[in-house]
Amino acid sequence: MQETAPADAQEAAPPVTAFMLVKTTPEWLAMTPEERVRAFSTEVVPAVEARTTGVRSRFYDTEFYSTRVTDVWVWEADDHHVYQLLVDALRETPFWDRYFTVVDLLVGTENGYARTYGTEAVATLTT
């Protein structure tokens, strides 16, 4: 027998969270910090803003701990369609495969198991 989420959980779908694991390219690293900020601000951000709404992001530097992945970009989108529009927008900018190599995408919803089974989110801790 397949379990279904309670009706109220189905109606209030959680945002889609994507952990975009990326690695900088030699082209990106050859730029000065000022050139990187300018390139990102003029070539990437406007494309995302023009194609999407309902998107938030956070950026984490990891190159001092990992050689395979230099940065993790955490995206939160209101739904799967918005996430798809985000990726489409990024793919049409130099971000995708020119400034960064996308190593992996890990996409999910926070505490999805709790929503599915109508239980408390026991895996999320605040101490």
Coarse shape: globular
Oligomeric description of these chains: single chain
> Biggest sheet: strands side by side, in what order?
2-3-1-4
What does the average pLDDT come to? 90
SSE string: HEHHEEHEH
Distance between the termini: 37 Å
Family: Belongs to the darcynin family.
InterPro entries: Darcynin
Protein name: Darcynin
Pfam families: Darcynin
Describe the structure.
Strands 2-3-1-4 form a four-stranded antiparallel sheet. The model is unreliable at 1-7 (pLDDT under 50). It has 127 residues and is of the alpha+beta class. It has helices at 7-11, 26-30, 33-51, 80-91, 112-117, and strands at 16-24, 55-61, 71-77, 100-108. It has one domain (16-110): Alpha-Beta Plaits (2-Layer Sandwich). The termini are far apart. The longest helix is centred in the N-terminal third of the chain and has 19 residues, at 33-51.
Concise overview:
InterPro entries: Darcynin. With 127 residues, the protein is of the alpha+beta class. 37% of the residues lie in helices and 25% in strands.
